[in-house]
């Protein structure tokens, strides 16, 4: 009845056999299936549709609280799931978004070119294919990979190529939100709920309503927020700080971190249940060192972009410089490549970037450090090294601490802590 009120033509099938027959005779924009069918398992129906009618999204109806079934369905390729008793507003949201898949397809011409994922390596091709598939689903995706490898870009593309493309994509760096403000940042607050709350304020979930919330550096979430976040994701509703009632929200969750989240789970620093919920599908973005073939294309792309922004002629890379880039290990990955070229662009003369302009740091990756064997205690030796690394990162990021922390692959809080410890002002 709800669907018919939305002017949707509905066919029903009493069992799997009937469903297969109907699928063979009609073209459907969306299919709902129960988990247990009289003559089989709903998961098999998902597989059947994926194989024969890949353009028809399937949503699984699961028993309330049966997260395992829901996740199994998503992993099998279900578009989304609804749990019983079905909340009609959630059902309407799901259907509206799913139907956009069909109508949105042709309008999805290449979006802004800055959002394209470059690289002709086998790994990047695979990732691009996977993005297209994942964009058609509502399943939570966990993107792993080193800092600067392109995780955020991948998340944006999953959003941009899917049915939520015209709705907000809201990224949040979980390590950069101060602890005290975290709950209010995520869920919003009511006026007067704490000192300084002078007006009602919407949180990130509300800002992302109808769209995608990207939890960047999700490993940095403190444990008490992990509990609240899990609840919000499972219930699809949130309670603003100081509010009496919950507000339903419709967001797709994407997350990323450069840390090894399963290790953190083992160490008890990240909740198993939240990990399980956000890591339904994992997508690993390889570091630049694993796909050196992509370096020339990326370098060319960044030089074009940098020159355009400066309104100047695009510089040429000398052969020696090109060679040096190919031999460098790029601990900061694509972001570091971009930074190096930006700096080289300002340093170079005669429109040619030479090896010296790149100012590549001596690669400590492959050979051992010269550890001084004098009487300097280990702690102070390490402290000096740390200081040097932090100072370099700060310089590179023009003293933007958030950016410096990213470069170093640590959270904003960790950087603040280390700055204090090392007495860097
Ligand atoms: N394959 C790629 N093609 C083009 N630009 C890329 C690619 N990968 C990363 N970038 C660019 O490199 C920078 C760092 O990427 P980002 O997604 O922020 O990395 P991460 O989130 O993994 O730290 C961004 O400016 C991004 O646009
Ligand atoms: Mg990032």
TrEMBL record:
At the top level, the lineage of the source is Bacteria
Domain Response regulatory positions:
1-99
**What is a single molecular function from GO for this protein?**
ATP binding
InterPro entries hit by this protein? AAA+_ATPase (IPR003593), AAA_lid_NorR (IPR058031), CheY-like_superfamily (IPR011006), Homeodomain-like_sf (IPR009057), HTH_Fis (IPR002197), P-loop_NTPase (IPR027417), Sig_transdc_resp-reg_receiver (IPR001789), Sigma_54_int (IPR002078)
Enumerate the UniProt keywords alphabetically: ATP-binding, DNA-binding, Nucleotide-binding, Phosphoprotein, Transcription, Transcription regulation
Q: Which Gene3D superfamilies match?
A: 1.10.8.60, 3.40.50.2300, Homeodomain-like (1.10.10.60), P-loop containing nucleotide triphosphate hydrolases (3.40.50.300)
Q: Any idea where the Sigma-54 factor interaction domain is?
A: 117-346
Q: Which GO terms describe its biological process?
A: phosphorelay signal transduction system; regulation of DNA-templated transcription
Q: Which residues carry this modification: 4-aspartylphosphate?
A: 34
| PANTHER family attached to this UniProt entry | RESPONSE REGULATOR PROTEIN PILR, TRANSCRIPTIONAL REGULATORY PROTEIN
The identity of this protein, by name, is Two-component system response regulator
Q: What organism is the protein native to?
A: Candidatus Tenderia electrophaga
């Amino acid at each position: 009845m709800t669907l018919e009120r939305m002017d949707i033509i509905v066919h029903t099938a009493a069992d799997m056999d009937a469903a297969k027959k109907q699928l063979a005779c009609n073209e459907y924009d969306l299919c709902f299936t129960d988990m247990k069918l009289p003559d089989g398992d709903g998961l098999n129906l998902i597989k059947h549709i994926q194989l024969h009618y890949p353009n028809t999204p399937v949503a699984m109806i699961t028993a309330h609280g049966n997260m395992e079934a829901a996740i199994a369905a998503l992993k099998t390729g279900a578009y989304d799931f609804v749990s019983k008793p079905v909340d009609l507003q959630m059902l309407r949201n799901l259907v509206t978004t799913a139907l956009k898949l069909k109508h949105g397809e042709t309008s999805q011409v290449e979006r802004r070119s800055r959002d394209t994922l470059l690289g002709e390596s086998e790994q990047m091709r695979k990732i691009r294919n996977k993005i297209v598939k994942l964009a058609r689903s509502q399943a939570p995706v966990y993107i792993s990979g080193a800092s600067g490898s392109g995780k955020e870009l991948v998340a944006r593309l999953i959003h941009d190529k899917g049915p939520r493309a015209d709705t907000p994509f809201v990224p949040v760096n979980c390590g950069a939100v101060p602890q005290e403000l975290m709950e209010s940042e995520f869920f919003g607050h009511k006026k007067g709920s704490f000192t300084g709350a002078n007006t009602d304020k919407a949180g990130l979930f509300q800002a992302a309503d109808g769209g995608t919330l990207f939890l960047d550096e999700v490993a940095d979430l403190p444990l008490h927020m992990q509990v609240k976040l899990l609840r919000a994701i499972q219930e699809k509703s949130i309670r603003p700080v100081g509010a009496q009632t919950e507000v339903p929200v419709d967001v797709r969750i994407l997350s990323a971190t450069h840390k090894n989240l399963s290790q953190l789970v083992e160490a008890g620093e990240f909740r198993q249940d939240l990990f399980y919920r956000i890591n339904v599908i994992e997508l690993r973005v390889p570091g630049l060192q694993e796909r050196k073939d992509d370096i020339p294309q990326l370098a060319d792309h960044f030089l074009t972009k940098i020159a355009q922004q400066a309104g100047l002629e695009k510089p040429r890379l000398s052969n020696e410089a090109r060679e040096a880039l190919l031999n460098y290990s790029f601990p900061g990955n694509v972001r570091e490549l971009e930074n190096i070229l930006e700096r080289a662009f300002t340093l170079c003369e005669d429109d040619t970037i030479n090896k010296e302009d790149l100012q590549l740091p001596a690669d400590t990756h492959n050979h051992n450090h010269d550890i001084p064997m004098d009487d300097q205690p280990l702690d102070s030796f390490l402290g000096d090294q740390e200081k040097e690394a932090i100072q370099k990162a700060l310089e590179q990021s023009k003293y933007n601490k958030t950016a410096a922390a990213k470069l170093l692959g640590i959270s904003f809080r960790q950087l603040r802590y280390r700055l204090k410890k090392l007495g860097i002002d």
